[in-house]
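Customer escalation, tier 2.

The customer says the design service returned an amino acid string that "doesn't look like it belongs to this structure." They asked us to rerun it and document both sides in this ticket. The original structure tokens are below, unchanged.
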């Protein structure tokens, strides 16, 4: 009886079946099949090769399942590797974005400090210019008084 037939008769899928891994896979599968159907019952001698216990289609199905598991593990490894690369790339991009934000904030702070300094300088210059204008006006008025009065 194949694994497909076994799973159909027992109402389980191959995915739901918990099969052992490693060298004991064939022996455990053999025991599982023999206990489910007494007509196909056979024992597992310790000294015989496990391949002698199975018809070829069962062995090929087990091998196919093993290959499927290997393939899925490789696929999962590839996906995990890709995920790690994407995570690393996203992390690097986030770090670069944060460093750019910090750099721009520092530049903005420097520009604002410089703008405040220029603003103070302009106010001081304007105050100085107003003092000079006031002084010159008073000097002109004095000179005009001297010219007209004297």
């Amino acid at each position: 009886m194949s694994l497909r037939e076994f799973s159909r008769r027992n109402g389980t899928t191959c995915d739901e079946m918990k099969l052992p891994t490693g060298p004991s896979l064939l022996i455990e599968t053999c025991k599982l099949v023999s206990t489910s159907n007494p007509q196909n019952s056979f024992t597992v001698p310790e000294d015989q090769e496990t391949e002698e216990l199975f018809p070829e289609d069962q062995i090929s199905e087990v091998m196919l399942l093993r290959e499927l598991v290997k393939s899925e593990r490789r696929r999962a490894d590839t996906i995990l590797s890709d995920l790690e690369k994407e995570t690393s790339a996203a992390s690097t991009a986030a770090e670069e974005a944060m460093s750019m934000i910090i750099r721009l904030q520092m530049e903005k702070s420097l520009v604002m400090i410089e703008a405040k300094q220029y603003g103070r300088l302009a106010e001081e210059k304007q105050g100085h210019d107003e003092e000079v204008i006031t002084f010159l006006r008073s000097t002109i008025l004095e000179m005009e008084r001297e010219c007209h009065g004297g």
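Tier 2 assessment: The sequence is consistent with the input. Residues 19-23, 40-45 have pLDDT under 50 and may be disordered. The CA atoms of residues 25 and 97 lie 52 Å apart. Sent an explanation to the customer and offered a walkthrough call.
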